[in-house]
Amino acid sequence: MTDFAIAAQPREDIGRRASRRLRRTGMVPAVLYGDGKAAMGICIEARLLRKLLPDERAYTHVITLQLPGSKETALIRDIQMHPYKEEVLHMDFLRVHAGEQVRLHVPVHFLNESTCAGIKAGGVLHRALVEVEVEAPVDRLPEALQVDIAGLHIGDSLHLSQISVPAGVTLVPLLHEDDKEVVSIHNPRTGAEAEEAPETAA
Predict the structure, then answer these.
(1) 19 and 90 share a domain?
(2) Residue 27 — φ and ψ, nearest 5°?
(3) Residue 114 and residue 179 in one domain
(4) For the chain, how big is the Rg over CA atoms in Å?
(5) pTM for this model (two decimals)
(6) What is the pLDDT of residues 135-159, one digit of tens each?
(7) Which GO terms of the cellular component aspect does the record hold (predicted)?
(8) Residue-number span of the structural domain to which 91 is assigned
(9) 171-191 burial, b if ≥16 CB within 10 A, otherwise e?
(10) Bridge partners, residue 125, by sequence
(11) What CATH number is associated with residue 91?
(12) What's 143's DSSP letter?
């Protein structure tokens, strides 16, 4: 179930001042919660997060938090970034166990853009969704939803109900009858003509 592991330390001091002190020592404050257990304050070396977080898979895979004398399996639930620096200020981790049903946002990857019929004909690709919330057992969470657009022509679109997903995976918006558009191919002249159209008198 686990593909990633990172060392973590428990922390007892909480609050903004304590968090600032931790960050000055190169540590990032975090909290671990869920699975019917008490929330636990932890901290992780910033240098380790700089190696982990650029990997897109880290956001949809179970991570083993290696604590002194114990281990916890968790998903990244939230990351607070500095407003203008590439610096993590705080993280939330959700405890999980094998087989548990969880909901998570996963990215949408579009396949075969270079061979898409509509793009080759001069159409413009519109990515309506870049991620979507899914529900699945924690060990079946997809890294991303793969959407093949090779057969789309100008004027065509795909909605969530038309997307194939792995066994055991449910698209959460469809549970609420929200069949969102995922991608479409537009005629490039439509936008230009709309901009050039004369305004009508009020």
Answers:
(1) yes
(2) -110, 150
(3) yes
(4) 22
(5) 0.80
(6) 999 989 999 999 999 999 999 999 9
(7) cytosolic large ribosomal subunit
(8) 2-97
(9) bebbeeeeeeebbbbbeeeee
(10) 185
(11) 2.40.240.10
(12) S
d(CA 107, CA 60): 9
Structure token digits, residue 160:
């969530």
- Contact of 8 with 67, CB cutoff 8 Å: yes
Residue 73: what residue type? T
Model confidence over 107-120: pLDDT tens digits?
Answer: 999 999 999 999 99
Cβ(42)–Cβ(28) below 8 Å? no
Nearest to 36 by CA among 77, 94, 105: 94
Q: Tokens for 43?
A: 């901290």
Secondary structure in 3-state letters for 61-89: CEEEEEECCEEEEEEEEEEEECCCCCCEE
113's tokens: 């853009």
Q: Is 122 helix (H, G, I), strand (E, B) or coil?
A: coil
Residue showing tokens 């439509």: 190
Look at residues 97, 130, 156 and tell me which one is the last residue of a structural domain.
Answer: 97
